[in-house]
Amino acid sequence: MSTNVLRTAEGWWVVRGERAVPMDTKAVTTAELIADRDAVRQAALSADAGTPVADLAALSPVTTPCRVVAQMVNYRSHARDSGFKGDIPPAFFRKASGSVSGPGDAVVRPSHVKFLDYEIELGLVMGAPLPVGTVVEERDLPAYVAGLVITNDVSAREVQLTKTQFYESKSYPTFTPTGPYLALLEPEDFAHLLDLRLKLSVNGELRQDRTLADMIVRPAQALTLLARFQTLDPGDLLLTGTPGGTALKAPPKPVEKIGALLPPAVKWKAFFKSQAKNPHYLSPGDVITATIATPDGRIDLGEQRTPVTDAK
What we know:
Low-confidence stretches: none
Distance between the termini: 43 Å
Oligomer: single chain
């Protein structure tokens, strides 16, 4: 069974039901915590009654700086929403680790952004170095991946689309809420990954709801493809793509064909004028709720609940 770990300003905790037991560890970073599995086991077996989880202010269980890498268009449902047909080539992009925030921290919309979108994603937290040239088979995953986290790949869509700029559009501070739990996996847990269900709601309205069975490039293959050019180290984070249901969707084909004939400035002005009528983009006062778990609770990454605010 997986073990859920929580991080607060006071240190690291092992979660047991509705209570958490403090860990006796000198670990400061996520990489150091992963290396101290003895401390995790001791806390899990401790007779300490613990502290109510509700009384703890959770920080991101992924410490920074670290590498934050993300997969693009990696769920079939998201590919359909985005207007893709046929085979979709695997693609990756980087996010600034300064975008990582806690599971209860506000998502802050920059003053120049009107079209703020959500993307729930399963995050893989590395537990061992992944050198360039590594080939990862399914059976090898436990050797490289230490655990899982909920992430939200928040996106400034007008920056992403008009500049074709993923790095900027997804790297503003607070644009990667992470946690609350780091689920440290046992080797037998990896057989249950495809049962994980990702669910995201805004103000109680369900927007995204899919299992990993909808994924196009699964974790072992993704790590192999990434290792063609990118080294990863313990504590680094890979976001594995989002299901369908985001606010942004491709326009109907006739509209897309007409748009292709227009000068870029005119095309984007018309596109965002139509998007202004879309009520699903995030606004100040909204609350995003995200969960990832298997139906049987064997792996449960907790609940991420983030309000949306404007930059002051």
